[in-house]
Write a structure and sequence with these properties.
The chain has about 70 residues and is α+β, with helices and mostly antiparallel strands. The protein has one domain. It is about 45% helix and about 15% strand. Strands 1-2-3 form a 3-stranded antiparallel β-sheet. Helix 1 crosses helix 2.
Length: about 70
């Protein structure tokens, strides 16, 4: 199982039906998953949360904001 699937299973993220938008559940942030940068951010978020055990509420301040 990859990080995305594990993140969905653990309730950290979810996708819309078309998998165009990802929602970071704890932060209640919905982002365009078709943006290549968002795929990197999702993997980074899930790596920090699932592999390194960082609390989700501390991760949101790093990169879950719309830059432009």
């Amino acid at each position: 199982m990859n990080l995305i699937d594990t993140g969905i299973e653990k309730g950290l993220i979810r996708f819309d039906e078309e998998r165009n938008f990802i929602t970071y559940i704890h932060q209640n942030k919905k982002r365009n998953y078709n943006n290549p940068e968002e795929k990197v951010q999702a993997e980074t978020f899930l790596t920090l949360a699932l592999i390194y055990g960082y609390p989700e509420n501390r991760i949101k301040h790093l990169f879950l904001y719309k830059w432009c």
